[in-house]
């Protein structure tokens, strides 16, 4: 089967909002995922320690200038090419934009990449809960950045009261009703919300825990559970789905959804086909599933997000099941989102 493309996640946020804190948190809680990192400079990321512990698998840094201003698509491609190639075993690449970067430019660099082994994995915007109002006054473009985000981390909620918290949540929701908003302290978010956690075998009895596992368990002891802020809903059916109904669901996702992934079996004309589907925010991708794929005899989708209405998500997906014969050209709805 073709190599799965490596998602490239852009992390943006105004100066001091907590981007580096998020990156360090993800690197300490990789849960076995292999992470490649592109940052402006490694000054504040504890890269040496991470390297020694085997937490960071590959890194690229732009030591002078701002990633978004100084880099054009070919520069970004040169960095991505070093991380993502045929023999790369990375699960995800995280690009940390500098605090003044324009997220739209960063997205353009990733989406415009000609590297065939990567796919855009979404924009994570870190918002400083304490400074949001003041920053918006000085830099109104911050509101547009919120509108672009696929996942908003409302960070530093330890420093605001619950009324302010509620107000901020509704304001962010007004600015972007589509994105999942997760409130965090010190950017502690479950990495599973951002990237797939690989199913690699855990330590056998008598085996030592890796530093990753030790760090992860340590975090779990000290703080609220990382997965408190989000839901993962699984939808399974052996009935084939209607391609147009499915695409309509994916293009008009329920509020709070951040990612959708899994296998779908769709029917059109006399054919049923199975695809691997992956969405993050507005970005939808269908890859034909290989024949030998064990999961290819039905639909199994996982919908991940914050404050999801489980019944609504299941009902809407249930309504995607094809109840009548579907015309063959309905498959074009999906072909719009298959790789060239
Ligand atoms: N109280 C509190 N402090 C936080 C939280 N998250 C981050 N900080 C602190 O805020 C400061 C800025 O965090 P960084 O992660 O460096 O922010 P950044 O977005 O990478 O900053 P730039 O690189 O300057 O854009 C640091 O001192 C962090 O320790 C939080 O949730 N609560």
From TrEMBL:
It comes from the Bacteria. This is GTP-binding protein. It comes from Rhodococcus sacchari.
């Amino acid at each position: 089967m073709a190599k799965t493309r490596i998602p490239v996640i852009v992390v943006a946020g105004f100066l001091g909002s907590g981007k580096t804190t998020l990156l360090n948190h993800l690197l300490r809680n990789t849960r076995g995922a292999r992470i490649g990192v592109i940052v402006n400079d490694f000054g504040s990321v504890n890269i040496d320690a991470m390297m020694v512990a085997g937490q960071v698998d590959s890194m690229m840094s732009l030591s002078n200038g701002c990633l978004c201003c100084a880099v054009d698509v070919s520069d970004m491609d040169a960095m991505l090419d070093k991380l993502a190639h045929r023999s790369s075993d990375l699960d995800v690449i995280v690009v940390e934009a500098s605090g003044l970067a324009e997220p739209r430019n960063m997205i353009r660099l990733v989406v415009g990449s000609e590297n065939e082994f990567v796919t855009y994995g979404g924009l994570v915007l870190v918002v400083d809960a304490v400074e949001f109002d003041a920053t918006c006054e000085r830099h109104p473009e911050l509101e547009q950045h919120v509108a672009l985000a696929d996942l908003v981390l409302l960070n530093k909620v330890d420093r605001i009261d619950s009324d302010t918290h509620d107000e901020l949540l509704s304001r962010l929701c007004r600015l972007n009703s589509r994105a999942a908003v997760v409130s965090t302290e010190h950017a502690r978010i479950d990495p599973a919300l951002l990237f797939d956690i690989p199913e690699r075998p855990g330590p056998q009895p008598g085996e030592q825990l890796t530093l990753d596992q030790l760090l992860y368990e340590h975090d779990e002891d000290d703080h609220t559970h990382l997965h408190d802020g989000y839901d993962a809903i699984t939808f399974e059916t052996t009935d084939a789905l209607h391609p147009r109904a499915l695409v309509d669901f994916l293009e008009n996702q329920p509020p709070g959804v951040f990612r959708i992934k899994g296998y779908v079996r769709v029917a059109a004309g006399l054919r049923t086909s199975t695809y691997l589907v992956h969405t993050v925010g507005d970005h939808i991708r269908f890859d034909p599933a290989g024949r030998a794929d064990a999961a290819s005899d039905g639909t199994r989708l996982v919908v991940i997000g914050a404050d999801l209405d489980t019944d609504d998500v299941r009902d809407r997906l249930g309504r995607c099941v094809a109840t009548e014969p579907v015309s063959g050209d309905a498959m074009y709805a999906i072909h719009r989102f298959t790789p060239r």
